[in-house]
Amino acid sequence: MFVMELTYTAPIESVEEEMDAHTAWLDDQYAAGIFLASGRKVPRDGGVILAGGVSRTEIEKIAAEDPFVVANVCTYRITEFIATRTSSDLSTVKEIPTV
Q1: What pTM, to 2 d.p., does this model score?
Q2: Which of 46, 49, 81, 97 would give a disulfide with 4, using CB separation of 3.0 to 4.6 Å?
Q3: pLDDT tens digits, residue range 59-83?
Q4: What are the beta bridge partners of residue 51?
Q5: For the CA atoms of 24, 28, 31, 32, what is the dihedral angle to 10 degrees?
Q6: Which ranges of 1-99 would DSSP assign to H, the alpha helix?
């Protein structure tokens, strides 16, 4: 599983200009079953996405295709973790550590 932390690198007005395209990109990833949750950080200087079911290489490719990245209005910090405990709603992404 991955925590994808977005940090805006441009004024919020520039971010807002790309919001419709970013939202469509999010919708595509939810439809593909990759994104599990997403939203704005408080204060509003970026966002967070929880994702699963793909490799690190795949999630980096997906992040690079975000219209925010293409427009140079954000950067990503991607953290991989093993979800050994989850709520029942997220039980399908629970992992058993191999070590």
Answers
A1: 0.90
A2: 49
A3: 999 999 999 999 999 999 999 998 8
A4: 2, 35
A5: -170
A6: 12-17, 19-31, 56-64, 67-70
